[in-house]
Amino acid sequence: MRIDIITVLPELLKSPFEASILKRAIEKGLVEVHLHNLRDYTDLSYNQVDDYQFGGGAGMVLMIAPIDKCISQLKSERDYDEIIYLTPDGETLNQKTANTLSLNKNMILLCGHYKGVDQRVRDTLITKEISIGDYVLSGGELGAAVLCDTIIRLLPGVLNDETSALTDTFQDNLLAPPVYTRPREYKGLKVPKVLLGGNFPEIEKWREEQAQARTEKLRPDLLD
Fold first, then answer.
1. Final residue of a domain: which of 152, 184, 203?
2. Residue pair 44/15 in contact by the 8 Å Cβ criterion
């Protein structure tokens, strides 16, 4: 998989890909992540990529020209399955979306900034709009990092135990059951007996029941 990220703040995005699972995925050749500074694609002085909005109002808007130039150059080099705009008013990211996107070969992520992007970008260049939640960030960079993490960890070979991702919270519209590790007892708090007996059908049954109960209590909306 290849992910191209268009941003005005590439330095903000470097760190997530230089550590932990994302770094290992890149080193193993399972994913390529390329950062593109939008300011490299403007012909205006002072590397300007934003301007005041027509009609007045507070906040600057990313202009269509440098975005179009960057996306056009990338599309001339390869085909892309999705061109995604990170924006608060996009489709809310969930596990189902992450699962679907993990099957793609090439994607472009466009990070919004300031007041957003010229609407013509959204109308003509973008194939999907994604939000990571009902709140506003200073830009789409952190949202892009979150989206990349949710996708990359699903790629075959990224996790040491590939079945781990299949039992994550939300995979079956259920929250994950509680988990325990050593010691068996700590300050009078004991690990449930069913997990210690080695009866795996019983363990699986217990986990399913716990997942159902936790979801009903904490996120009943997932069961609708």
1. 152
2. no
Task: State the distance between the two ends of the chain, measured CA to CA, in whole angstroms.
Answer: 34
- Overall residue count recorded for the chain in this entry: 224
Q: Could you give the CA distance from residue 62 to residue 49 in angstroms, rounded to a whole number?
A: 6
Largest CA distance in the chain: 70
* Helix, strand, coil % over all residues of the chain, rounded to 5: 40, 20, 40
Q: For residues 207 and 201, what is the distance between their CA atoms, to the nearest angstrom?
A: 10
Pairing of strands 50-52, 60-62: antiparallel
Q: Within its chain, how far is the Cα of 103 from the centroid?
A: 14
In order along the chain (224 residues), what is the average pLDDT of each group of 10 residues? 98 93 96 98 96 94 98 98 97 96 98 95 98 95 97 93 66 89 97 96 96 95 89
Domain span at 171: 167-223
Pull the structure tokens for residue 24: 């290992």
Helix (H, G, I), strand (E, B) or coil at 50: strand
- pTM for this model (two decimals): 0.90
- What are the phi and psi torsion angles at 15 (to 5°)? -55, -45
The count of other CB atoms within 10 Å of the CB of residue 187 is 5
Write down the pLDDT at residue 166.
62
User: Do 38 and 73 belong together in one domain?
Assistant: yes
Total domains in the chain come to 2
C-alpha span between 41 and 26 (Å, rounded): 26
Q: Residue 205: inside a domain, yes or no?
A: yes
pLDDT at 112: 93
